[in-house]
Design a protein that fits this description.
Helix content: 40-55%
Enzyme class: lyase
Subcellular location: Cytoplasm
Strand order of the largest sheet: 2-1-3-4
Structural class: alpha/beta
Bound molecules: coproporphyrin III, fe (ii) ion
Oligomer: single chain
CATH architecture of the largest domain: 3-Layer(aba) Sandwich
EC number: 4.99.1.9
Strand content: 5-15%
Number of helices: 12
Pathway: Porphyrin-containing compound metabolism; protoheme biosynthesis
Function: Involved in coproporphyrin-dependent heme b biosynthesis. Catalyzes the insertion of ferrous iron into coproporphyrin III to form Fe-coproporphyrin III.
Radius of gyration: 20 Å
CATH class of the largest domain: Alpha Beta
């Protein structure tokens, strides 16, 4: 049951795996993006705090292992590959290996759930660029569709919020604080046919998770890990500022749920487990951070289902989604190339 696809590619962000990797990795991330050197030096320190090792690559190795078992147990007879945007294994190297193995047409699962330039089109651009770098015979790669509202992504977040709440025990008023990576407000405004699709999708998921985990509690959606030059507006409030506002309002305990992410990578274990936790403790707020899906079996099954729906579409010749015409992975207007404030037109 493979239709016309002959491989599945895990496409991710990548992260350093030792102190010497940190600066070259960060330079790959911010190339052409106008991120100030001072911000980069500060972020390098976050990585050095963990010996220069981001957990994201190990998390992707674990996801690959789980997917291999899931495919084998369900008759999906496709080899798995893994390539990153910013660090080894680099996507172009993976595509070269795939070509050497005779792969011609692959489906890609990107570890990014939502619409926007950074969380969607940039991965598509990565594919275009890497294929050009590899040249003749580079396999075709088609990104799977968005999964932000898929139960395989939402349900692990629900259970994680419920267990974080249970671990916290409330001393008064508890608030659920959902977080996602901030992006420039212009990037959010450009996503989707009517704009604001990135934040709208996040608000949808926050509402679903809160309603299932704790319908009696209030919740907020806020932002973390702001980058970029200070004069460029990004989505606000920042999670730390928001915790200060909540404490001032009389909230006593918070569960912080990073629904913007699929695994507990560095922006989770530093920006939340260190920075936001420290902010909370300084305010006397009880704090529990909810886990991300990682290798939750429901999440792993979701990836297999996203693959098999495409195998089915390909073998049946059916269009399964109204946005097939503009490239099967994107809703209309999902992730236009941004006009960057630095004036550099994105490709
Ligand atoms: C929307 C979004 C996601 C979620 C979707 C997805 O998962 O893809 C995400 C994920 C991640 N972001 C990550 C790390 C970084 N992001 C940076 C910078 C930026 N992120 C942006 C957006 C996003 N980022 C943007 C608009 C920038 C500014 C530069 C630019 O315009 O492109 C920087 C530069 C330094 C700084 O923070 O200033 C770093 C180091 C890691 C890896 C963590 C690890 O190593 O474990 C992950 C998974
Ligand atoms: Fe998109």
């Amino acid at each position: 049951m493979t239709g016309s696809y002959d491989a599945v590619l895990l496409l991710s962000f990548g992260g350093p795996e030792g102190p010497d990797d940190v600066m070259p990795f960060l330079e790959n991330v911010v190339r052409g993006r106008g991120v100030p050197a001072a911000r980069l030096a500060e972020v390098a320190e976050h990585y050095h705090h963990f010996g220069g090792v981001s957990p994201i690559n190990e998390q992707n190795r674990e996801l690959l292992a789980a997917l291999g078992k899931e495919f084998a147990a369900n008759g999906v007879d496709l080899p798995l590959y893994w390539g990153n945007r910013n660090w080894h294994p680099m996507l172009a190297d993976t595509l070269r290996q795939m070509r050497a193995d005779g792969v011609q047409r692959a489906l890609a699962f990107a570890t990014s759930a939502y619409s926007s330039y950074s969380s969607c089109r940039q991965y598509r651009d990565d594919i275009v660029r890497a294929r050009a770098e590899v040249g003749d015979g580079a396999p075709a790669v088609e990104k799977l569709r968005h999964f932000y509202d898929h139960p395989g992504f939402v349900e692990p977040h629900v259970d994680a919020v419920a267990s974080a709440l249970a671990s916290l025990g409330s001393r008064g008023t508890t608030r659920i604080v959902f977080t996602a990576h901030s992006v420039p407000t212009s990037m959010d405004a450009a996503s989707g046919p009517d704009g604001g699709l990135y934040s709208a999708q996040l608000r949808t998921v926050a509402g679903l998770v809160a309603a299932a985990a704790a319908p009696e509690l209030s919740w907020d959606l806020v932002w973390q890990s702001r980058s970029g030059p200070p004069q460029v507006p990004w989505l606000e409030p920042d999670v730390n500022d928001h915790l200060r506002a909540l404490a001032a309002e009389g909230v006593t305990d918070v569960v912080v749920s990073p629904i913007g992410f699929v695994s507990d990578h560095l922006e989770v274990i530093w920006d939340l487990d260190n920075e936001a936790a420290r902010t909370a403790s300084g305010l006397g707020l009880g704090f529990a951070r909810a886990a991300t899906p990682g290798t939750d079996p429901r999440f792993v099954t979701m990836v297999r289902e996203l693959v098999t729906e495409r195998l089915y579409a390909s073998s049946s010749g059916r269009r399964l989604a109204p946005w097939d015409a503009s490239g099967p992975s994107c809703v209309p207007g999902c992730c236009p190339a941004p006009v960057r404030p630095a004036g550099r037109p994105a490709s």
